[in-house]
Amino acid sequence: MTHAETLHAHLDGGLGTVARAWAVTRRDGTVYGFTDHDRDLSFEGITFRADTGLSARALQQATGLSVDNTEAMGALTDSAIREEDIAAGRFDGAEVVSWLVNWADVSGRRVMFRGHIGELRRGNGAFHAELRGLTDLLSRPLGRVYQKPCSAVLGDKGCGFDVTRPGYFHEGPVTSVKETRSFHFADLSEFEPGWFQRGRLVVLSGAAAGLSGAIKRDELASDGSRRIDLWEPLRAVPQPGDQVRLIAGCDKRFETCRLKFNNVVNYQGFPDIPEEDWVFVHATQAKTTSGGSRR
């Protein structure tokens, strides 16, 4: 029998020794397991801990394409979910799977919910996480935008450019950090100023490891160091000496794709598309309308 059939057979017996269990997988691959049972449970290669104080409201499910949703609540503890991790955004968009499981025999279980974390609030030593079902993804607009700038992200499948190629990234320690959005580097002379503008900064070590941000500005500072500013501050505090990776920037223009990256074959924009004003141009009054020369 399948796991679900085993659970149903157990429930048909009239004695239900069931509990709920949740697995939370962050985008960096870290997995957390929780259960509302009074002892730990283990299955699917995950240990579901009972000492986290996690609870959840009743799951609201609907037929059709309506979005299933629920909410999970729990205490913030150093051994489970830490407040600084939530503040840093490490749980944003994390995948969530919920089971109904026979705690006396975990082979009897059934997935009741699969989705991701939406809005996440914290305060007074606890957190409240909105859980959104898989049908929430169907509400996102899809399709291709026809525009002059490239619609791909540098290094993604559409772009196809390898951002780990020599000359297009830098890894090294940061010498100073201001307001978690302005980074200074001792020597980036091999890269011309502006090379990393519109690129990405990724923190590789320290308290902010795994966090990243889009680069707004890349310029020489008054003290001769290289200054990299982000559009938004990181949600954790890097320290001087932390290792950082800088990835070259792309302004989405056809000329940049051709001259800076030599990747014009994968350009995802339409550089020859007419401007918006072209739509409002009146038809010509010339007698010759064949498209040939007027001479």
Automatic annotation (TrEMBL):
Top-rank taxon, per record = Bacteria
What is one Pfam family matched by this protein? Phage_phiJL001_Gp84_N
Domain annotation Bacteriophage phiJL001 Gp84 C-terminal: ranges: 194-277
Which InterPro entries does the entry link to?
Answer: Phage_phiJL001_Gp84, Phage_phiJL001_Gp84_C
UniProt-listed NCBIfam families: phg_TIGR02218
- This protein is called DUF2163 domain-containing protein
